[in-house]
# Entry
Amino acid sequence: MTDSAPQTEDAHRGNLHRQLWVMAGPIILSNVSVPMLGAVDTAVMGHLAEPYYIGAVALGAMLFNFIYHGFNCLRMGTTGPTAQARGAGNHNEVRAMVGRALFLAAVIGSAILMLQLPIAGIAFWAVESSDQVETLGRQYFLIRVWSLPAVLGTYAIIGWFYGLRDARIPLVLQIFTNAINIVLDFLFVFGFEWDVAGVAAASVIAEYAGLLLGLYFVHRRLGRLPAGGEAARILDPVRLRRMITINTDIFLRTMCVVSVLALFIAHSAALGDVPLAANQVLHNFLIFTSFGLDGVAHAAEAILGESAGRRERKAFGAGVKVVVLWGGLVGLANLAIYAVAGTGIIALITTIPEVRAAAADFLPWAVCMPIVSVWAYTYDGIFLAATRTRAMRNSMVIAFAVFLALLFGLKPQFGNVGIWIALTGFMATRSLTLMLMYPRLARTI
# Structure
C-alpha cells in the first residue's frame, strides 16, 4: 500500500507530460509557420537589388505588430475562459465564448479600418527612415491593413479551439493560410514584379481564405458539443464585460511587447539601412523563438485552465512543474539550433554581403535570447490559464520601463549594442517578475 500513492502520482505526472505534448507539438508547428512566413517575406525582399526593400517590409511589419500582436488578446483572452468553462462542464458557455470573441474581432477590425490613414500618418511620422523605406513601407501598410478583420477573426477561432484542447484545427488553419501566402508572394513579386505591394496583397488574400476555412471548422464543431451548463448568451453583459476586462489587461500587456519591438526596429532604422536590415534578419530568430516557446505556453493554458476551472490546486501545481520543465528544454533546443545553424540561416534570408556581415556580428545576442526569455513565455501561459491577467500586465509594465531606461541610457554611446542590451534586459525582467508573482497565484487557485 505504501508504494501505490507514489505510483499513482508518477502515472499522473506522466499523463500530464503526454497531454502537454499532444497539445504543444501541433501548436509549435502551427506557431513556427507564422514567423516562417515573415522570414519568407524578408527573404523575397532580400533577393531584390537594394536593402531598402527589406527595410520597407520591416517598417510595415512593425506597424502590423502593433495592431495584430496588440489584438492577439482575442486569442489569449479566449483560450483560458473557454478551458475553464469546459473544465466546469459548462458547454453552453463554451459555445457563447466563440461568438463573443468573433463579435469583438469584428468591432475592433472595423474601427481600425476606419482609422487606417491617421494611424499610418502618425506611425511613419514617428519613425526615422530613408525616403525609399518610408514610401514603400506606407504602401505595404495601406494594402495589408484590409486583412485585419480576417486576422482578428482567426485569432478568436484559434483561441477557442485551443481552449477545447484541439491544436489540430489551428495547425491546419495556419498551414493553409501561410501556404497560400507564400505561393502568392513568389507569384506577385517575381512573376508580376509588384515588389512590396505584392507581399502585402498576398497576405490580404491568404488571411481571408484562412478565415473562411476557420468559420467552417467552428460551425462543424458547435454541432458536436454536448449540452450542459447554465444558459449563456453571446452578449450577456456580465460575461462580455469580464471578457473585455481580460482582453484589456492582455492588450495593454501586449502593447508593451510590440512597443519594444517597434522601438527596436525604429532605433535600428535611425542607424541606417544596413543596420536596420541586419536587425530585421536577426529579428526573425527572435520571432521563431517566441512562437516556439508560445507552443508550450498555449498548451499550458488549455491543460491548466481546466484545473483552474475545477478549482483543483494540486493538479494545477503538478501541471505547472511539467510546463516549466518542458519550457526550459524547448528554450535550450532553440539556443542550440541558432548556435549551430545561425550563420547559415542568415545566408538563406539575404544575399546582400553587407547585411550578412552586420547580422553575423550581432548573431550571439540572438543565440542567447531563448534561454533568457523562455521563462517569460512559460509563465505567461500559466497566468493566462488562471486568467490572472492583471499580474501579467503589471509585470510587463515593469519590464517595459527597464527597457526604456536601458535603451535611452545605452544606445547613444554604444549604438546597436545598446539596443540589444535593452532588448535582453526587457526579456530578463519579464521572466523574473512573473516568477516572483507566481507563489501568490498558486495560493489562490
Observations:
- The first helix runs from residue 4 to 46.
